[in-house]
Amino acid sequence: MSNKDAPLSRRGFLGGTAAAVIGGSVGLGAPRQEQARRLVSTVTIPPQSGRGVLLERDQWIKVITPRGVQVSDLFAFVRDAPDEYLCPRTTMTRQRRLYPQIGQPFYSIKRRPLLMLEEDTVGVHDLFYPACDNYMYRDENHPSCRGNLNAVLEEMNFTPGGYAEPHNLFQNSPAIDMDGNLEVRRSLAKPGDYVLLKALDDLLVIATSCSVDRGSINGGECKEIVLEVYS
Ligand SMILES: [Zn+2]
Question: What is the pLDDT of residues 91-102, one digit of tens each?
Answer without folding.
Answer: 999 999 999 999
